[in-house]
Amino acid sequence: MQTVAVPSRVLSSQTHVTALTGPELTRPKLETDRLSVFYGDHQAVSDVCLTFKKNTVTALIGPSGCGKSTFLRALNRMNDSIEGCRMAGEIRYDGIELQSRQVNVLEVRKQIGMVFQRPVPFAKSIYKNVAYGPIRHGVKKKKELDRIVEDSLRKAALWDEVKDFLHQSALRLSGGQQQRLCIARALAMQPDVLLLDEPASALDPVSTAKIEELIGQLKKEITIIIVTHNMQQARRISDETAYFYMGRMVEHGPTEQIFSNPRSEQTRQYISGQIG
Amino acid sequence: MMSAKQADRLATAGLYAVAGVILALLAGLLGYVFVKGFPMLSWQFITSPPQIFKGGGGVGPQLFNSFYLLVLTLVFSLPVALGAGIYLAEYAKDNWLTRSIRISVEVLSSLPSIVVGLFGFLFFVIYMGWGFSIISGALALSVFNLPLLVRVVEQSIQSVPRTQREAGWALGFSKWETITNIVLPAALPGLITGIILAAGRVFGEAAALIYTAGMSTPALDFTDWNPLSPVSPLNPFRPAETMAVHIWKINGEGIMPDASAISDGAAALLILSILLFNLSARFVGRFVFKKMSAS
Amino acid sequence: MAKLVKETEHPLFKKSSKLRTERFGKGLTFAAVLLTALLTAAIFFLVISKGLSTFFVNGGSVKEFFTGSTWNPGQKHEGGSPIIGALPFLTGSLAVTGLSALICTPLAIGAALFMSEISPKAGRKVMQPVIELLVGIPSVVYGFIGLSVVVPLLRDHVTGSGFGIAAGTIVLSVMILPTVTSLALDAIQAVPRSLREASLALGSTRWQMIYKVILKTAKPGLLMAVIFGMARAFGEALAVQMVIGNASVIPHSLFEPASTLTSILTMGMGYTVLGTAENNALWTLALILLLMSLAFTIAVRWIGRGKPQ
After folding, report:
1. What is the pLDDT at residue B176?
2. β pairing state of C71-76 and C82-84
């Protein structure tokens, strides 16, 4: 992946000093400025400008292939690993351009966690699954690790179900439990932002409900961006919603407004089920 | 003219016959080797050294040599194969360099083992001056084994779903860290199965060895484990005839009266070992997976 | 209150040692892959340079090598060039390879069809393990059984000493059978289900479906399997050497002692001195082996070029 157009304000950021004052709190945690993503010649995302506020849940909706997942994966530079993928435009996190050369992409992914469509537990024990991230990032003390594991599993509402067999294989958990384990694993890195790529699409209704409830809890601490196909789910759990169509972001606003009174006719048609 | 139905029935019968022939062939092969070879197998046979002029010799040193060479071969070839397999599976971009490397690995794997043996003879035995020795033999076997192992490593790594890697990257792991900490452990069961099967092939190989490890074994003192001592079984610079080479050699030029019985016994022992390799390949892989996912 | 934070202190700018180990790991694995490629190059270089010296250093005739039938590289013609007629070995090698492919192909394809189309259950439960086991049996054991079963059988029930191309062919076809079968099985199983069902739906019998659809579609894969088997047969040394009789004459019958490139190489290398014309001539045989295995590899790649790996 090559980085396109490093903006001048980042290059001069060595000396740049920012004041974390009043307005700073309302500054978006994460924002994109005319972000485009290309796979070879195909442009999957076109000029998307979006802002994500602290402690809010933003849902990205739209028909399959509309570019919402690609957009999500651009936010933690996950697309870097795809051969032939190229990005243009800016992603700013705390005001820092993420594609800048000085930015350590591994730190980006630590700060911006991600949970995937299907549960992806490692072939290790439940404990190791959660502890592995912190261990690899330098946490050595057993006590500290125990605390992180318990904390993360509690936050992911899984602790009570697994606390008695932490050292058994994670592969033996049910699909819903595995997905919550993956959320716990992401939380163990203490991220500021959590990206969820249709986290409940492979799960049964009960597990889905648990995950949704969990998201409501988590947003007290972190910023959440969730891609979902399920309109009811978007409406239930998100504060803001952005509608994507054909690689473009059509409309973005408070969820209630998007669902009750969308500005765009296209959005209205999608929400009412007229566009697949 | 036959009707379609008749032709179908005839063909089916033919295919059953073919399957039967193959089963009979294996039963015959195994039956022959075991029926003739098993009576030979005794503790004395598998531990005592061969006799040159009279009967009653064993294959003790040959059995030891086979295992020793196998171990050294794996020590040499496994790290290189791991590296090469990882590179091809994880880092290689699709360009001319990668393509030519892939072709060269494929060509290497298709070389007749006698050619690999002759290369080893020229390079290790003559140019490096190591003579007919375990080290020459192990290196020649490593060359012979390397392309197969590279393929084993590459395939078992590729069989780990991409999502596992993404999950690692999403935790802020570098690519290398993800490979060593997540992908390799997940690939381990397949890796072990493949390695054991490759080991079976190395164990039975003879053509690559006759001009590298040699066709003789000096008198060994199995109480002397100092690798520098000339009579130590561990000495890597002594010649070493393996079981497979022994079978070949005594059938060509053996002058002991019981050469054919010794070959029967050695062949049975060889096939028994290969059987063990095959069986353990199945079980060890599964066992490791169970063990690993719960720790 | 205003807290001042330098932006470069933001955790995103942290340098981690992970990036260094990343470079290290990538470099290390690349070195390994390079070593593997270099080994191939080294083998080619050594064998080619040694093999060509028969012609360039000892002045042997290329034409004689491929057409002459007297092999005595220790002796010289009147003009001073060594006597290097390798035709007997070339014929021997090609004969055992071609004949064993001829015997092996119908058996292997038949067994693969049985495992895939007739009785997949017996195929998986019985045939598969049998074939895996057969693949693992060392070639010396095949040679030894050939020597102690096939050769006496031919001697007693057919004609001659028992040693010869016929014995070599039998041993080699049994030896390559499991490999060719499992590759043929892969090729047959790669034929899409839909093609079979379409054919059966049109009222074909199973045999018509196999004959017209499966064998046709799987043809490139089956051809690759057979060529792969031939490559193994051509390069096999000891198993053949044990049963072929090792006489360096052009055989006039399948039941007379003959020899192959590999058998002469195996027998001779230990009895010649490195650097002599005699020894160089053997390396020329090795060169032919190398080039043939290259040709087989190229053939397999060429046939499989359309297929995704």
Report:
1. 94
2. antiparallel
Alpha-carbon dihedral of residues A211, A217, A218, A224, nearest 10 degrees?
A: 70
How many A-B residue pairs are in contact by the CB < 8 A criterion?
A: 79
Predicted local distance difference test score (pLDDT) of residue A36 = 93
CA angle C76, C77, C81 (to 5 degrees): 70
Q: Chain C 23-42, CB below 8 Å of chain B: which residues?
A: 24-26, 28-37, 39-42
Residues B25 and B163 in one domain: no
Residues in chain C: 309
Taking the C-alpha atoms of residue C134 and residue C128, their distance in angstroms, rounded to an integer, is 10
Number of folded domains that form chain B: 2
Q: What is the DSSP letter of A169?
A: B
Element (H, E) at A195: strand A193-197
Contact A17 C2 (CB under 8 A): no
What's the pLDDT at B295? Answer: 56
Task: Tell whether B108 and B33 lie within a shared domain.
Answer: no
Total domain count, chain A: 1
Please say whether the beta carbons of B188 and B238 come within 8 A: no
pLDDT tens digits for A180-227?
Answer: 999 999 999 999 999 999 998 888 888 889 889 999 999 999 999 999
> Domain span at residue A75?
27-271
Q: Which residue matches tokens 């795809």?
A: A82
- What is the CB-side half-sphere exposure of residue C147 using CA atoms within 13 A? 24
User: Residue B218 sits in which domain range?
Assistant: 44-293
Nearest-CA distance B154 → chain A (Å): 19
Q: How far is C86 from chain B (nearest CA, A)?
A: 18
The per-residue pLDDT string of chain B (295 residues; one tens digit each, 9 = 90 and over) reads: 578 888 889 999 999 999 898 888 888 888 898 899 888 888 888 888 888 777 778 888 999 999 999 999 999 999 999 999 999 999 998 889 999 999 999 999 999 999 999 999 999 999 999 999 999 999 999 999 999 999 999 999 999 999 999 999 999 999 999 999 999 999 998 899 899 999 999 999 999 999 999 888 888 888 888 888 888 889 899 999 999 999 998 887 766 778 888 888 999 999 999 888 888 888 888 888 777 766 5
Q: Burial code of A33-72, b = ≥16 C-beta within 10 A, e = fewer?
A: eebbbbeeeebbbbebebbbbbebbbbbbbeeebbbbbbb
Structure tokens at C70: 């007297």
Whether residue A152 is predicted with pLDDT greater than 90 in this model: the reply is: yes
Q: What ipTM was reported for this prediction?
A: 0.90
Give chain B positions within 8 Å (CB) of C43: 108, 111, 115-116, 119, 143
The domain spanning residue C235 has which CATH number?
1.10.3720.10
| Residue C289 covered by a domain | yes
**Do B181 and B131 share a structural domain?**
yes
Q: Do C228 and C300 form a contact (C-beta atoms < 8 A)?
A: yes
Please state, for a pLDDT cut of 70, what percent of chain C lies above it.
96
Same domain, B140 and B36: no
CATH number at residue A74: 3.40.50.300
- Residue A196 falls inside a structural domain: yes
* B162 interface with A at CB cutoff 8 Å: no
Mean pLDDT of the A152-163 span: 92
Calculate how close chain C gets to A156, using CA atoms only, in Å.
25
> Is A21 among the domain residues?
no
- Interchain contact, B105 vs C37, CB within 8 Å: yes
Long-range contacts of B10-17 (CB under 8 A, 24+ apart): B10/C207, B11/C206, B11/C207, B11/C210, B11/C211, B12/C118, B12/C206, B12/C207, B14/C110, B15/C110, B15/C113, B15/C114, B15/C117, B15/C118, B16/C114, B16/C118
Whether B4 and B58 map to the same domain: the answer is: no
Number of cross-chain residue pairs from B and C with Cβ atoms under 8 Å apart: 259
Torsion of CA A154, A160, A163, A164, to 10 degrees: 180
Task: Kindly state whether A111 is in contact with chain C, defined as any CB-CB distance less than 8 angstroms.
Answer: yes
